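Fold this sequence, please.
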Amino acid sequence: MRVALIHYWLVTMRGGENVLEALLDLFPQADIFTHAYAPEAVSAKIRAARVNTTFIQKLPLATKAYQKYLPLMPLALEQLDLRGYDLVISSESGPAKGVLTSADTLHLCYCHTPMRYLWDMYQDYLAASGPITRGALRFFSHRLRLWDAASAQRVDYFAANSRNVARRIAKHYRREAEIIHPPVDVDFFSPQDGAFPEPEDYYLYVGQLVGYKRVDVAVDACTRLGKKLVVIGDGPERKRLEQAAGPGVTFLGNQKKDLLRRYMQRCKALLFPGEEDFGIVPLEAMASGRPVIAYGKGGALETVIPGKTGLLFQEQNVSSLCNALEEFAPDSGAFSPQVLLEHAGGFSHAVFRRGFSVFYERCRAAWEKSPAEGSIGRE
């Protein structure tokens, strides 16, 4: 069986790329197709596969300014020659699912989210963009939405990474989706000797420093209460956040995975102030034996169990997070590291592989039985 994996771009290693690695575990013979590819920025497992690129790769600064070429990506996808592939799996949160396949090819889409800058967060992206980008978004977004909705009909069956994303797929594409949570590297983040370190006197934020993740809420809350906060990650918001931060807030930039694990295992709690599609970082913290204080919306509702794996604050502002920080009692024994680890274990690589294998086999059986009618995910 010939398998093609379509991934939007390969210029870093984040949650979407971890899913791609897990798909390579299931289909090691698969070829990868992507818009922009920076081999030095991805894992050895991905580099070992045969990676093909669209014409976007040949454009200036393709691996750094790839998002500027978004209006060209539908055309680029439709130029890919996928004849001869029996199975196509698109990994979607940028343009990936819009490839053209034959009637003899099964097309599954694992959707991290419908493109946020076209749908749910369009106004947020407009507000955060400069005048040139804002003008381009307004000009191209309507056409891209039409293409995005139409290309959803090229997919035979959808899987979503969360209930949150499944609702978006139903809203924007009018399609049903199987829910398969993305894989979390539970083994790496859990203590190697089984002994959980004692928490140290700091809270932790991990992620990109961009507007929609609302890192400012965590920085301002810890500054107001005089609590220590370690921020791991980088992005365009860093300078502004550093200027607003109090003396107890430390910015470390991007860090290697080993050091990230050390900070995860020793923090009082992870702060998660953004609204995410799913959110793998909270589960990495739980695998490290540490609870999470998260904004109670989006993917956090599927992983953070109040009083058991963390706390939820209900309004995305400083006062609401301050209330949660004052309520949080890390020494009360309410958050057992072993319970946190066991909860994270329900989202492991092995669980993902089993879930996706079952999804694939069901879809294959239904498609072969009645490919013209479809059944799973079509209603």
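Residues 203 and 268 are 5 Å apart (CA to CA). The radius of gyration is 21 Å.
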